[in-house]
Amino acid sequence: MKALGGGDVIVVGGGIIGGSIAWRLAQAGAAVTLLDASVFGGEASWAGAGMLAPGGEFVSRSRWAEFALESRALYPAFVAELEGETGVGIDYRRCGAVEIARTEAEWQDLLARRAAQAELGIRAEVTVGGLYYPDDALVDPRDVTRALRCACEKRGVRINEQTRVMAVRVTAGRADVETSGGMLSGSAAVLAAGAWSGAIPVNGADGQIAIPATFPVRGHLLGYTLEPGSVGPILRHGHTYVMHRSSGFTIAGTSSEQVGFNRELDSQIVDDIHARAAELLPRLRSAPKPTAWLGFRPATDDLAPAIGRLGDTCLWLAYGHYRNGILLAPATAARVAGEMLAR
Ligand code: GLY
Predict the structure, then answer these.
(1) What is the pLDDT, as a whole number, of residue 2?
(2) pTM for the structure as a whole
């Protein structure tokens, strides 16, 4: 088998999570090789809306709710640092979000949610028709992955695209990665392949090591071209949201389907999202026909991310971020790269 030539650290997966970890490691002077089965930033990170909104996602205390707030707090500096290193502009705005109640029962639910979220440190104010979350923000994930790729390249990360990982073999100090292009060895590795992570066999000295399984939860999104600045905060009602990029591109979501990696758009789901979104923002009814796309949220059985070192091996897991991969990228990178560098 052809040897690809190895870096000290091999990152499997070039989404926003793997890309952020590779960048942080390379900043600290590590030699990094990043592998992606298709193209850098081409899957869930490309598809994601980029809502940085713990207010819409977390109601009760959990370590992930705290981690999400930590990551949101890191975002402004993360974006500024990436822009500073690369010159690539990133559309990031703390635009706030309005969660709408349509009935008295929904309003009572929102008030209960506001009380529970106050305990977590998530601020919400009463506004006309619902609650306003002043700290919720948005980012264009495609800008982030474009900048991450540039930052990684500037820092000398070797990016091998169209390189599928078949298996990983790990001990405490050596990782051998079997890929479609040959074997690659390093002194540590990171598994950050999103919904594909759990299918990669990980072997130790005594045989296969169990890692959390993954499955894809497909989501559809629609994009409308509107006048820049014509929509204010993110609008949300249940699982429907509308958010507006600085360019005017306005995204409506979403859906959740467990259909494996089926990439065929479902026109009924597209029509349903359009109808729901137009209830939130009636001008969408007369907007030019939206474009539609889909992506695969990386889920684990308990819907919580798998982040951290695998036993006493030199493999770190960083996948399963489900609905919050874009939000959790800065904190995941800080934690994983920090632990690896400390070792
Ligand atoms: N972050 C929202 C979603 O996954 O649809």
Answers:
(1) 46
(2) 0.97
